Amino acid sequence: MNGTPRPSGTFPSTPQTNRSSRWADSRNGASPSRRPNVSMPLPEVPRPDDETKTGPLISTDIIDAPTQRFYVFAIYVGLLAYRLYDFYTLAVDDVESFWLFIKWIAIDGTFIFSLPLFQIPWLEWSNFVAVALFAIHAIVDGMLMFRIGVPIQAWLFSLVTVFFDSEMTISEHKANPRAVLNNASLILGKQIINILPEGSAILNPNKEPFCLNSSVQHLEIPIQINQTDPILIELSRIDIGTSQNETIAISGREIKTLMNKAKKARKHADPAAPLLLRYPIKKTGIYLLQKVVDKSKLEVRPRSASLIVATCPQSRVKPTGNNRCRNDLSNIALEVEGTPPLRVKYRTTVNGHPREASEFQSLQPEDFISPLSRHTSQALIHNSRQDVSWAQPRKITVALNETLVSSGVWTYSIEEVQDALGNIVNYVVSEDEDRPKHKPSGLHQSFAVHERPNVILDGCSTQRPLQVAKGNVARLPTKYGSTGKGAISDSKHTIEYLFTAEDDLLPNGDHSPDAQLKQQTLKTIREQPQIQASGLYTIKSISTEFCEGEVLEPASCLLHNPPEPELTLTSEDIVDKCAGNPIGLRVGLDLIGTPPFTIRYIQQKKGGVKSRKIKQIDSLRSTLDLTPPEAGHYTYTFESIKDWVYGERPLHELILEQDVRPSASAHFIDADRPKQICIDDAVKFDVALQGDGPWRLEYELVHSGKRTKHSIEVETEEYTIQTSKLTNGGEYTLALTSITDKMGCKEFLKEEARVNVRHERPKAYFGVIEGRQSVMALEDKAVDLPLRLTGAAPWVLEYENLDTKEIKKLHVRKANDKVGIKSEGTYQLLSVRDSVCPGFVDEKAGQFTVNWIPRPKLSIAESATMVFENGKYIKEPVCEGEEDTFDVLFSGSAPYDVVYEQHLKDKKAGKTVTLGKKELKASSSSATLRTETSQSGMYEYKFVSISDSKYDNGRKFQPIVVQQTVNPRPNAKFAVPGKTYSYCSREEDGEEVIPVTFDGVAPFYLEIEIKHHGTPKPETVSFKNIQTNRYDLRIPHRLLQLGHSNISIRKVRDARNCVRKPEAHSHRVQISVHDAPTATPLETRADFCVGERLSFALGGQAPFTVYYTFNGQDKKATNTHTTFRRLAELPGQFTITGLRDSASECLAGLNISKEIHPIPSVRLSQGRISQVDIHEGGETELEFEFNGTPPFEFTYTRSTNAVKGKKSRVLEIRTETSYEKRMVVRVQEEGTYEVVSIKDRWCSFARPVEGVEGGVVGGKKLLQY
């Protein structure tokens, strides 16, 4: 027998025919060779009087009774199918109904009345039963063949009502009372005692797992023998793959060798322990211990056990690609192979950081059912005819798909795999562990996760096209990026773009349908696609070696080829009016291209040197006047042209020639500014002459309205005019009036040169500040000493600091300038010189004295509330919202301006917030600073600078820090503001409480206000010493009145003595006081059993809401009647804690308790079907375990052990009483022991018993108390 408990709903054992003769028993399968080897027979068990009965017509030796019943059932099903076929043909072909009806009542009559003649057990019904069955079949035949309507729906509803009747249970769900009362799990367990021959043998007694693979190629399976000396052991091996059987016979010589090894091993362990033979195997399969023969030639009955040697489980990561993109799925698959269900454990490592290990359990193919999940007996395989294909190794693929949220190297590694038999292969264990070591390839799979690229066009769009010269190659201004922090610099970028030639663009500027799709691969991010043809370029995609990217806007660029620059010349002579000679050439320039233009040309005088010149032109048309200063033959060659787009381009055959004879002229050389000279000095001017010499030059000297004219003859092109000494101060003007060349052509000139003659020499001295030549200045601040200078700018001034002996030279451009100094001391002017003449220093005003003003200082007044610690001033803590100040002391020049920084450190958030810089102004030597208390936290006042009426800022000021802690004001609020709480008129336990939450430091003081409806004056209630931040507020019942009341918080105070008074009506709840409903139990007893019903009468207005607890869990039920009834489905404490009716929201506190006791249960052999083999004369124990309340009274039976084809009979019924929850009964008799009834102090349970003589109902008898 296997170890699965048999449900009580199975078919009863087949009744067997009892033969008095010994040979009949032998013929029914009780072969003497299969009987236990016992020294004396068991006493005869009382049997019912069956001598008058006969066996079935077909002997059970040929076909056993269950098989005969199966054949009868199959014939009946076949007739039923044929009957339904006739009914179908009747509906389709309209065959005559009467003949079909006669046909079927004849068939049914023959079947029903002839079946009892076969005397098949359970089908030997009486004549009355046969007639009743025939009548039922005749009615059904008539309804089918005459097509009479059948009320199938009503029948099904009645059937569902019978089998699915349900009631509401205490757990508030529907349950069938029959399922609660008839719980087969209350009595579990069965112990089968077999009398065995001397000795025993068992295969794999410790149920160890075994497996083979390439590294573990042979094993030693354990065979435990006890009190026997075997000479033959037969093992049966079932091949897992082919299900073929193989018998392995272990010879006496091999057994002797195995026993010698076992005895040596036993000496070192427990000498009294059974021998453990270890037989080597090399093949997988299911091994059964078939036969053991000892020295006495008797067969030792082996215990039913099997050993499965499977292929060791293995796993690998299926190879996939080595590259992924960010935000892709990992797309990894684990391939696990072994006997399912399997378990695999793996770990993910990202950039060298391992994550927590993960695992998959219960891996098995779909529709796969393993007997391991429901196996309880020691022997999984009982014989070699069972299907063992479930033990074959299966290959299961598990997909892993997770989003790759970060770039880098991801590694998936398998750590452990386990099959259903308990074989574990650990790939990370140390080498000294005794586990299968198999290191297949593919345990790790690593791949790189790359960032995705993106691209944008920078500096080009359809509105801002690229201007590129024809034939030139330009770069598409791409700017690369990625989903990471920057562009991907170590990978090639492939860009696909769409190109449409400029002439093929659509009228709206879009691409034409014939646009070309091009692709370029760029090796580095510094490269850009090269483009040449004019038209519209639009980037469609970007990708790297591994990832597709994103194209950002703007993604389109228009390339334009402007026309090449060209130059066209027109020219005319410039003619002298007097002599009629050409003096130059006026050239007209007509250009094509993109401005600005640069024109390079060569001007060369015959016999002279080439002069290269450049002309810049910002428009498409301009003129150029070529007027060389000297006479001669000139050639103008235009060499090249360049515009904004195109580079230098040569010009061909653009040459102009002209003979130039310029008119006479003269001008001063370097006379742009007036010359400055001292009085009584002469002055010289250089003059350049042009034209045909020699010349007559006329000039005049003008001063104070007087003109002195001069005329000279000049034969050279340069001449120096020198005046006489200028004795008067003031301004002189030297003017060139006319020039006459050798042709007699006179030209009037407008050239003038000015000369300023100084009236006196320059002088220098210090000015005064506030009437004195001394000053008190700010330290390290530049002081501007006033200078007074006469003469012509600029001046060169030299002065000395008499205290430091430092001499400096100063260039001054203003007569009333200032000299900046940064050091205190007495300064002396040494010398002065203006732009023309040296000067002198005024001795009376040549010195100036500078002294520093003291800087302001700041300090904090210390007191009992202000102490100096660790370099900071600590102010006494205050509460939020309270006013507080501290004094600041000053020294210096009032008024004072102080700048301080205010910082707030939020202790909850752990962050410091700068509240900004503030100013403090004081008109005296002290000031009071009001501290910030509007928000709680740690405030820090850092004085960073001070200024007074003299100093704007204190660069040398050492910052002073003042700290003060502002404690937050406590706060109290209702957890659910605005909610209405209901109270009963009488005080009950468990009344609704009003939860209040506090912010602050406990203990708290709370003051609330209760305003009753219709009363003008509210009541005030205080609650002291509240130790927690959440408090359940219970309103004293003496303050409650029927009707509605409002409750609001007036004041709250915490341990820091900080107080908060909430605004009126900011936090409010309502309470409503009602009369309470009632509940009365209909039964006075307090103890019930599972399966019974609890009933209560409810007083009030329906519907009701019943609150109760069951096993510590709060329940709520709605009841529409005045009787509350529940089925006791589970044991526990049932207590009605409250009741609410529909008249009010009042919850009446109740305490009506009922104890529901569990139906007692008993476990024999720990609730399993166990087999115990003992020797003749030996004994064993029946271990009973009880659940319930002592004392226990139970009844158990001993029946014959089940044999196929023979019904088990009850041999003995015993009743025992136990005052403990465990009882052991020692027995020696062979048989099947099982409990049939159990009773404890409160409840009882009995189950049907098979094979009891007398009072048999269907082969069963109920034992009840």
TrEMBL record:
Keyword Repeat carried by entry: no
One of the record's GO cellular component terms: nuclear pore transmembrane ring
UniProt cross-references to Pfam families, sorted A to Z: Ig-like_POM152 (PF24312), Ig-like_Pom152_1 (PF24519), Ig-like_Pom152_9 (PF24527), Ig_Pom152 (PF23664), TMD_POM152 (PF24097)
Transmembrane segments: 69-85, 97-118, 125-146
UniProt domain Nucleoporin POM152 N-terminal transmembrane: residue ranges: 64-148
Organism: Delitschia confertaspora ATCC 74209
4Fe-4S listed as a keyword: no
Region Disordered, residue ranges: 1-53
Residue span, Nucleoporin POM152 first Ig-like domain: 200-309
Keyword set, alphabetical order: Membrane, Transmembrane, Transmembrane helix
GO MF annotation, one: structural constituent of nuclear pore
GO biological process: nuclear pore organization; protein import into nucleus
Domain Nucleoporin POM152 ninth Ig-like: residue ranges: 1077-1154
Protein name: Nucleoporin Pom152
Polar residues composition bias: residue spans: 1-36
Residue stretches making up the Nucleoporin POM152 Ig-like domain: 452-557, 761-845, 1160-1244
Domain Nucleoporin POM152 immunoglobulin-like: 561-662, 879-969
